Amino acid sequence: MPSVRDDYEFVNIISAATTIVSGVACKLIRIVVNTTAAGTTTIYNAPTSAASQSTNTVGKLPSSAVVGDYDYGVKLAGGLVIVTGASSDLTVVYANA
């Protein structure tokens, strides 16, 4: 049985939006796609939506990303912003530094 991590936090995103998950340095653990993604999801290493730009892109999930866990395990010095292009049900698991 896996151990429970009390330092992990999560945010559930269910609509097309720009979501500031963490405005400070953090670690992106994983993104869980709960229903097949309806639009592209872009992950940024940035503290605010204004700082989200192509130079801060961590990765993208395509519009057809299937249900499952997408592990990242990366440190983000700037923060974490997720932009969903259409209504999708995602859970972002992260830990603040």
Describe the protein's architecture and organization.
It is globular and about 30 Å long. The model has no long low-confidence stretch (mean pLDDT 92). The chain has strands at residues 9-13, 17-22, 26-33, 41-44, 57-61, 68-76, 80-84, 90-96. The protein has one domain: Jelly Rolls. The chain is mainly beta and 97 residues long.
- Biggest beta-sheet profile: 4 strands, antiparallel
Count of runs of 4 or more consecutive helical residues: 0
Number of domains: 1
Mean pLDDT across the residues is: 92
SS-derived structural category: mainly beta
* Distance N to C terminus: 26 Å
Q: What is the topological layout?
A:
Layout: E1 9-13, E2 17-22, E3 26-33, E4 41-44, E5 57-61, E6 68-76, E7 80-84, E8 90-96
Antiparallel strand pairs: 1-8, 2-7, 3-6, 3-8, 4-5, 4-7
Quick structural gist:
With 97 residues, the protein is an all-beta fold. It has one domain: Sandwich (Jelly Rolls), CATH 2.60.120.
Q: What descriptive keywords fit this protein?
A:
mainly beta, 4-stranded antiparallel β-sheet
